[in-house]
UniProtKB/TrEMBL annotation, chain A:
Protein name, entry field: ABC transporter permease
Protein species of origin: Terribacillus saccharophilus
Protein's UniProt keywords contain Oxidoreductase: no
Membrane protein topology class: Multi-pass membrane protein
InterPro entries on file: ABC_transp_perm/SBD, MetI-like, MetI-like_sf
Compartments where found: Cell membrane; Membrane
ABC transmembrane type-1 domain boundaries: 47-228
Record's keyword annotation contains Transmembrane: yes
Domain of life of the organism encoding this protein: Bacteria
One Pfam family it belongs to: BPD_transp_1
Family, as annotated: Belongs to the binding-protein-dependent transport system permease family.
Keywords, alphabetical: Membrane, Transmembrane, Transmembrane helix, Transport
Automatic annotation (TrEMBL), chain B:
Known EC number: 7.6.2.9
UniProt keyword terms in alphabetical order: ATP-binding, Nucleotide-binding, Transport
Pfam families: ABC_tran (PF00005)
Catalytic activity of the protein: a quaternary ammonium(out) + ATP + H2O = a quaternary ammonium(in) + ADP + phosphate + H(+)
InterPro entries referenced in this protein's UniProt entry, alphabetically: AAA+_ATPase, ABC_transporter-like_ATP-bd, ABC_transporter-like_CS, P-loop_NTPase
ABC transporter domain segment(s): 2-237
Family note: Belongs to the ABC transporter superfamily.
Protein name, entry field: Carnitine transport ATP-binding protein OpuCA
Enzyme class label: translocase
Keyword Transport: yes
Complex and partners: The complex is composed of two ATP-binding proteins (OpuCA), two transmembrane proteins (OpuCB and OpuCD) and a solute-binding protein (OpuCC).
GO molecular-function term, one example from the UniProt record: ABC-type quaternary ammonium compound transporting activity
Amino acid sequence: MERKNKTIALFIKLIFWALLVAFFIWAFSNNMFSTIWEQPDTFLRLLGEHITIVLLSGAAAVLIAVPLGIFVTRPKFRKSEWLIVGIANLGQTIPSLAVLALAMGFLGIGISAAVVALFVYSLLPILQNTIAGIDSVDDNMIDAAKGMGLTNAQILWKIELPNALTSIIAGVRTALVINIGTAALAYLVGAGGLGVWIFTGIRLFDNAFLMSGAVPVTLLAILIDYLFKWLQFALVPKGLRLARKAQNA
Amino acid sequence: MIHFNDVTKIYNGNVKAIEDMNFTVEKGELVIMLGPSGCGKTTLLRMVNQLESITDGDIMLNGKSVRHSNKIEMRRNIGYVIQSNGLFPNMNIEDNAMIVPNLLGWDRKKMRDRFNTLMELVGLNPDEYRKRYPHELSGGQQQRVGVARALAADPPVMLMDEPFGALDPIIRTHLQEEFLQIQKELKKTILFVSHDIDEAVKMADKIALLKGGKMMQYAEPARMLNKPANSFVAEFVGQDRVLKSMSLYTVKDLANALTLKPVLESPDSQNINENLSLRVAISKILNQEADQLIVENDNGTRKGSITLDLIEQFLHREIKESV
C-alpha cells in the first residue's frame, strides 16, 4: 500500500514536470517572454514592486498576527479569541478585490492601498496557525513546566513557541503564497507590480505580455514556497523534526 | 516536612473537593495518597506546589506557608513527576533533565556532572542518551528521565502524580523497585498519588486513603491492611487484605519472630531466600510446589524451614500486635 502510494505520487510528479517543461518549450519557441527581453528595466521595476508589496504586507501581518495569536492563547485573554479571530475572519471573507477597493477608498491610489489590503488578507492564516500551533502543545507538558517552576514567559519561549513553530511558519507560507497571486491585482489600485503586464496582456489579447507577467508570478510563488520549506527545516528544533519524521514513517 | 492544616478546596463556590484535610508527611517519608478517582488526591497534591489554589487552611512546607511563598522559587525546590512524563519534544534528553538547574543558572560543568550522576542513578547510560530526543525512548525510559529531571536540582521534597501509572505491568514493577532503591539512598520527602493499592502497599511508608475529599485513614500499610478504620477502607484495600499485608513481611521477619521448624529431608521441600516476601512464600506453598520451604540466607546457609501453620501463627501475632 505504502509503496503503491509512493509510486503514484512519483508518477504524478513526473507528469507535472513533463507538462511544465513542455509548456516552457512551447512558450519559448513562440517567443512568449519577448516582453521581458525587450523591456528588462520595466520588468525589474514591476517585479520589484510586486515583491515589495508582498513582503511589506507579509511582514506587517507576521508582526501583528503572531503576537495577537500569542495574546489570545494566554488563559487570561482566552475569552477574547472569538472576537479577534472573528475580525480576522471578516478580512478573509470579503473578496480580495473588495478589500483592495475599500483600501483604495481610504488611502487613495498607490502602493499603500495594496499593502494594507494584502496585510488584512494575510492576517487570518497566520493568526489561525499561531493559535492552532500553540493549542496543539500538550497540556501535560505545560503542567510539567509550571510544576518545575518555569515562569509564564519561560513557558512561552522555551516550550510553547518552539513547539508551535512548524504551524506558525506554515501559516506565513500560506499567506505569502496567496499574496503573491493576489498582488497581481495591485495594478487595479495603481500600485504596479507584475499585474500591469498581465492586465495589459488580457486587454490587448497579447500573449507575450500576459505570459511575461503571469509566469514570473507563478515562479515567484513556487520560490517562496520552497524558501519557507527550507526555513521550516532551519528553524524548527531538531527534536520536533525527527519526531514528525518518525511519526510519518 | 509537609504539614496539611485544615486544608479545604471549594470549586465554583459550592463543590467541596477537599474538606478539612489534616496530616503531616515527615521528613524522609514516602506517603502515598490513594483513593478512587475523584477523591481529590491529585488536587491535594497540586495544592502543595500551588498548581491548585487553596480555598481555606494552609499547607506548611518546611515550616513555610505555601500560600505565602513565591510560587516560582518554591516549585524549583520541589521535584515534580507526572504520569505522562511531560518531557519536552523540542529538547534533547540532557536539556530536558537539566531544565531546573538551567533555570537556577548552574554552570555547564556542574550540569554535565549532575546529568551523568542522575542518569546512572535511574539506570540509563548518560552518553548514550544525552543527545537523543524523548520520542526516541520507550515509555519506561522516558519516565526514568522524568524522575531524573525531578531530582535534578536535588530538591528535598518530591511530588509524584501516578508516575508509573501509564507503564505496562512488568516495566512498572521494575521502576517501582528501582525507585525504592533510589529513595533508600536519597531519603527524599515524597508525596505520591496512586490508585493502585498494591503499589501503595509495596512502596509507601504511610498511606493516606481519601474518599470524596475526606481522609478515611492515614496509617502505615500494615496497619491499614490489618486494622482498617472503617468499612470503606476495608472494602478499598480488598477482601484479600491479609494476603496483601504479607508482601510487607520478609521470610526473615518471620524467622526473627518465631522459631523455625527443623529441616526435614523430603521431596516436598523447596529452598527460599530469607529476603523474599512472605507473599512469595505462601504462594509457593499454596501452589503445591512444596509443603515446607527451607529458609536460606544469601550465603546459602539453611536456617530452618517454614510451613503453612508457621505463617498462620506469624500473621495471628502480627495482626493482634498491630491492634
